[in-house]
């Protein structure tokens, strides 16, 4: 558990037992080295006491670096035996503590050594040069410690950024996969629901009109067979869609539907037996953006598919109006449901269609009419 004196980075000063032993050895060498001082015999007890206390304080330095370093500075003023431990404290604080704290502690250590040099001068070394060496050594220790700390912080920052970038990349990949699956599901529904509803219509005619002529039965069976092949081809193309660029143009160069294919979509529904009243009042349809035209096609396709499912045998009215600058308006209306749908639905068609229209920048509204019918209306942007 860290105290308020611990470094802000969360790292303690990691002194091991070997460091305490090393400081004790240097302290002993310092005491022995000062034996040339004529006054040393009278101060040997003080030197030994200071050396023992300063070495023992090394144990407290990791948890309480600043108070311990200040205590060592006081001991340094009494005896040179405190210099090794005091120097180690200066280095440790410069390596781990904030810059202001490190500078303040180093300044106190410099003053403490100057007091020691004035009280117990080194034989043969003038006080001026002692002061110069004192300031130079501590400044070098402070500079090296702060540089090392800044380098470590930069490394930690880069490592953290790399981890964040990796996590963000993983999140983006997951979102991209989800979006890709959503696009595939929407495309599969738009393509197959329409085709399969046509097949259900022809199959229903065969079921309810078994007395039809062999020619009509053969014709209906041929339409069903062709429709099945087309559905399989379209399913194969949809499954192969993995990128937006591939959605724009399917495998083998087969283009995706555009606004110009809406008329063919209406004729296909009429051929299946649905009465479709189609009213198109679109000015300059060639200038309609391809993405908007494709969305319009999907809207009409979904509306006709739902009409065949829920209101088979009833007429459907499709109205398309618009011009550049005012937008494109699509509206489909049909009578109410017959009760049991001709083919089961997934319930996600209108949800996916709403998402598609919103991505195109438009709005979609679908609701039952007061008289019992159903209305599907969409507005798409069409810039000038």
- What is the number of E strands? 5
End-to-end separation in angstroms reads 68 Å
Please give the order of strands in the largest beta sheet.
1-2-3-5-4
Strand content: 5-15%
Largest sheet: 5 strands, mixed
Listing every helix as H and every strand as E from the N terminus to the C terminus, the arrangement reads: HHHHHHHHHEHEEHEE
Helix content: 55-70%
Give the class from helix and strand content and strand pairing: alpha+beta
Overall pLDDT metric: 78
Q: Nearest-angstrom radius of gyration? A: 43 Å
Uncertain stretches: 1-12, 242-253
Distinct helical segment count? 11
Molecular shape: rod-shaped
Secondary-structure blueprint:
Blueprint: H1 17-33, H2 40-57, H3 65-78, H4 83-96, H5 99-119, H6 127-208, H7 214-239, H8 244-248, H9 262-271, E1 276-282, H10 290-310, E2 316-323, E3 327-334, H11 349-359, E4 363-368, E5 374-380
Parallel strand pairs: 1-2
Antiparallel strand pairs: 2-3, 3-5, 4-5
Helix pairs in contact: 1-2, 1-4, 2-3, 3-4, 3-5, 4-5, 4-6, 5-6, 6-7, 6-10, 9-10, 10-11
Detailed description of the structure:
This protein has 384 residues and is an alpha+beta fold. It is built from eleven helices and five strands, in the order αααααααααβαββαββ. The chain has a five-stranded mixed β-sheet with strand order 1-2-3-5-4, with helices on one face. Helix 2 (40-57) runs antiparallel to helix 3 (65-78), helix 3 runs antiparallel to helix 4 and helix 3 runs parallel beside helix 5 (99-119). The longest helix has 82 residues, at 127-208.
């Amino acid at each position: 558990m860290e105290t308020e004196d611990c470094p802000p980075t969360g790292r303690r000063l990691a002194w091991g037992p070997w460091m305490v032993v090393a400081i004790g050895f240097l302290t002993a060498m310092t005491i022995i080295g000062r034996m040339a001082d004529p006054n040393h015999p009278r101060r040997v007890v003080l030197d030994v006491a200071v050396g023992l206390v300063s070495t023992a304080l090394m144990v407290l330095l990791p948890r309480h670096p600043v108070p311990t370093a200040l205590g060592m500075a006081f001991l340094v003023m009494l005896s040179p035996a405190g210099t090794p431990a005091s120097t180690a404290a200066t280095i440790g604080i410069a390596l781990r503590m904030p810059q202001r704290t490190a500078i303040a502690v180093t300044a106190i250590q410099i003053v403490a050594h100057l007091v020691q040099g004035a009280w117990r001068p080194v034989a043969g070394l003038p006080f001026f040069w002692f002061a110069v060496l004192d300031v130079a050594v501590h400044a070098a220790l402070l500079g090296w410690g702060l540089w090392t700390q800044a380098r470590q912080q930069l490394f930690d920052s880069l490592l953290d950024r790399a981890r964040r970038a990796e996590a963000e990349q993983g999140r983006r990949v997951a979102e991209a996969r989800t979006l890709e699956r959503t696009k595939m599901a929407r495309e599969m529904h738009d393509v197959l629901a329409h085709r399969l509803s046509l097949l259900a219509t022809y199959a229903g005619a065969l079921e309810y009109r078994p007395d039809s002529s062999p020619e009509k039965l053969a014709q209906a069976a041929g339409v069903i067979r062709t429709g099945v092949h087309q559905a399989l081809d379209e399913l194969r193309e949809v499954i192969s869609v993995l990128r937006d660029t591939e959605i724009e143009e399917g495998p083998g160069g087969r283009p995706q539907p555009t606004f110009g294919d809406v008329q063919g979509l209406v004729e296909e529904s009429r051929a299946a037996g649905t009465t479709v009243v189609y009213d198109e009042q679109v000015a300059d349809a060639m200038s309609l953006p391809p993405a908007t035209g494709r969305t319009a096609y999907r809207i009409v396709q979904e509306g006709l598919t739902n009409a065949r499912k829920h209101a088979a045998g009833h007429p459907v009215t499709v109205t398309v109006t618009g011009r550049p600058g005012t937008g494109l308006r699509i509206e489909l209306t049909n009578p109410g449901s017959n009760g049991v749908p001709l083919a089961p639905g997934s319930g996600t068609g209108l949800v996916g269609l709403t998402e598609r229209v919103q991505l195109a920048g438009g709005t979609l509204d679908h609701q039952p009419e007061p008289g019992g019918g159903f209305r599907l209306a969409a507005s798409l942007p069409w810039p000038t």
